[in-house]
Amino acid sequence: MPQVFDVLHDIIFHCQSKKIPTIQLLWWVTMVTRRVDLRSDTVTKPTEAMRAAMANAEVDDDVLGYDPTAAFLEKKMANIMGKEAALFVPSGTMANLICVLTHCQIRGSEVILGDYSHIHIYENGGISTLGGVHPRTVKNNEDGTMDIDRIEESIRDPSFEICYPTTRLICLENSHAHSGGRCLSAEYTDKVGELAKKYGLKLHIDGARIFNASVALGVPVHRLVHAADSVTACLSKGLGAPAGTVIAGSKAFISKAKILRKTLGGGMRQVGVLCAAALVAVEENVGKLEGDHKKAKILAAAINNIKGLKVDLDSVETNIVYFDILKESGITEDELMKKLEVHGVLAMPEGPRKIRLVLHHQISEHDVQYTISCIQKIVSGLPDQNGVN
């Protein structure tokens, strides 16, 4: 954070030249060196309980299928998601890639997915690059859904396979990150599942934040993914594990997925060390998600009350807050982010005049209030009580 150190140097020099009291210098230094990281819920650090579990984990070779901690986590996650079996993999991107490639084993297969889905936008085109799978996008609505009629219209006519790729899979994302963490209802997912069965297709759910959706909707995870043939659940976002995602599906599906995990380089030996931390995440941090959601709503409402900024409050259902910077504010997203960084608040740009903030269990209520205060002072151009803006 070079800008922070530059500002810190300037403050110390200013205080020395003006003979400002040490106590005020210490206050400024504390303010400048404070860190509130809202870039993503992936920035959480392992808790002491996770570190202890990792140190004491019982392990063996998981590629050969003998790691007991990995097996315990996979069984637990399969039960939570209401599926026959589960598989631990290093990342969410690999998890989605494995699922798509397992469902679409014939090159030239086509998958229907949202135009703002994570698989389509943020996963490096892996399904095409590595699997020869063709994406056919359907417009995502503001709530993260796709119109059922548009999905059906996108399914290829198999009688014209001389020209068309073959539709084999539909993908949904719950919660939907690019829509601000909005949640897909069980009823909507059921309808997509019925459509998939009607045409002999499979349904995959990218459940990177499926626990957030479950908590926000008050619906068990297994109910939200009941219609899915496969589902992923990330353990290193809001749940705070240091790494890992779990895939769930039928025993036959997971057996094929495990082979693909090895092919992609995702087979790990004593992976129980990571799975032990993931177990703590599942057992201790799911209950903290509701607090994350409440803090996100508090943050969103306060930002929306700042002149020159705008939040779609209806979109804040979970732990993600997007806000627009209106032209009347006289500040750009880059300028606002740089000034926030000086105050130790980190955010993520989300396009022209738009910023994303993501809450997680290591962000306190005091951090939220501090962030609101910093944004207010920066946008209004007002200095704080000690002359820093």
Keywords:
389 residues, alpha/beta, globular
Can you offer a commentary on this structure?
By secondary structure, the chain is of the alpha/beta class. The protein has helices spanning 2-18, 22-33, 48-55, 68-81, 92-103, 118-122, 126-129, 148-154, 186-198, 210-217, 221-224, 251-263, 272-284, 289-304, 333-342, 365-380; strands spanning 36-37, 85-89, 109-114, 134-138, 166-173, 202-207, 230-234, 245-249, 309-310, 320-325, 345-346, 348-349, 354-358. It has a 7-stranded mixed beta sheet with strand order 2-8-7-6-5-3-4, with helices on both faces. The model has no long low-confidence stretch (mean pLDDT 93).
Amino-to-carboxy terminus distance: 18 Å
pLDDT averaged over residues: 93
Structural class from helices and strands? Answer: alpha/beta
How many separate helices?
16
Q: Cα-atom Rg, whole angstroms? A: 23 Å
User: Using DSSP, what is the number of strands?
Assistant: 13
Q: Which regions have little confidence, pLDDT < 50, spanning 5+ residues? A: none
How much strand? 15-25%
- Secondary-structure element string: HHEHHEHEHHEHEHEHHEEHHHEEHEEEH
Largest sheet: 7 strands, mixed
Helix fraction by DSSP (H/I, runs of at least 4): 40-55%
How are the strands ordered across the major sheet? Answer: 2-8-7-6-5-3-4
Q: Which oligomerization state do the chains in this entry correspond to? A: single chain
Global geometry: globular
In summary, what is this structure?
Helices cover 44% and strands 15% of the residues. With 389 residues, the chain is of the alpha/beta class. Helix 9 links the parallel strand 5 (166-173) and strand 6.
